[in-house]
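Much of what follows relies on a compact textual record of a protein's fold. The record below shows the convention in full:
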Amino acid sequence: MRLLAIDLETTGLDPKTDRIIEIGAALWDTDRRVVLETGGFLVRLAPGVTLDPKITKLTGITAEDLDEFGDHLPDTLLHLGGVCQRHDVRYLVGHNAREFDRLFLQAEVNRFVSPGPEIGLLSTLPWLDTMTDLPFPEEMTTRKLVHLAADHGFLNPFPHRALFDALTSLRLL
């Protein structure tokens, strides 16, 4: 079975008004227990959208980075939806995904007049959420991703960067 771990960095916490600025994704084969493909994509700011300095402080991503390296969001979503379609992805995986990443992806898909089957797939696949769907020992009282990684004997070298958080979610899974 194939899973696609996804993590998003955004301009804020409200999927109705804030926008995606980075997507990290990792395709995982559950039978072989191996990462098959990864990608980290900065996303250009939509017209009229600004980047809060608090987000830059948290992620290290600047508006200039997004201007220089950012892709157009529809192209990135089309690519990721195509990965899901071509490789028969059964679940999306993320940390706090049901309460955050899923809502942002759904909001972006809803902004399209006609998203097409690949992009639409991103809003219909079920999610596995490593914050709520994994059994953790009682002594692990925090659900912060960076702490869970350390509690499981590894470090996320770049927390709050989408690709590394997606890979950390897979490792927890």
